[in-house]
Amino acid sequence: MRFNEDAELDTSQVEDLRGSGGGIGGRVALGGGGLGLVGLLLFVLLNQFGGGGGAGTGAPPGLSLDRLSPGQQADNSQLQAKCKTGADANRDQDCALVATINSIQGYWSDYFARSGRTYRQAPTNFFTGGVNTGGCGGATSDVGPFYCPADSEVYIDLSFFKDLRSRFKAQGGPFVEAYVLAHEYGHHVQNLLGTSGRVRPGETGPTSGSVRLELQADCYAGVWAHHATRTPTASGKPLIAEITQDDVNRALDAAARIGDDYIQKNLGSGRVNESKFSHGSSTQRQKWFTTGIQSGDPARCNTFDTHDLG
């Protein structure tokens, strides 16, 4: 993936909490699609196979299980200094993520406007080790990337991308990181549209609402990717200049390695238990991302209106 070197970046869409301190307020309470790309999978594995747990998933959306300690304060000064244009995004990971977030939100802002709705921007919080959210309690990096529906914000410890390569054996790359973020913003879109409310927190199984929600977020990620090179942002120019077939292949590789079946087999007991599925199988995740990127149509992401999830 390559960025348009002349396009301007907007760092205000990121809250940089790294190195800001602040206590970690216990467990994170997320429901109705609030958990991130692999957070619930790791939670299920840790509890099913004896590793403890870092996330509570049985609470209603937005209900905090813990009293928060004083919040961390964002300091975007370094991002503002180094992340000004797409040229910076082509040489720096932080800036690439800022550019990706700008592009994702630019697409959904335009889509909502064309649909007669208003898109509310959601910041992405960069943190290290752990974080206190505004409405979902405290979380550690073990939860993985996640979206908190109570405060409508995305949270990610960027070390997750290294973990994705080392622990999950994914190929990685800038477009894989973009896929992860676009998936989380897919949850934000679901929250704005009220789709998240269709899912009972903690529900699992191959056709459960949780699986449908996650597959739809994968599809929404693909929809953004379809339009990314034609989506202008604040400067009037698309931030994404090129997405190659190799980029897409890497994203599909990542999707396969964060499927429920792959994780259970390779990071869990070695046995696949479909009753514990919460995000979808590897094949399903690849199918729905592909549906989005090929069609470019959010209406095709109808995971709640089909019997065939793939």
Automatic annotation (TrEMBL):
It is found in: Membrane. InterPro entries: Uncharacterised_pept_Zn_put (IPR007343). It comes from the Bacteria. Pfam families: Zn_peptidase. This is Metalloprotease. The keyword Transmembrane helix applies. Keywords: Membrane, Transmembrane, Transmembrane helix. The keyword Transferase does not apply. The chain crosses the membrane at residues 24-46. It is a single-pass membrane protein. SUPFAM superfamilies: Metalloproteases ('zincins'), catalytic domain (SSF55486). The lineage of its organism: Bacteria, Bacillati, Actinomycetota, Actinomycetes, Pseudonocardiales.
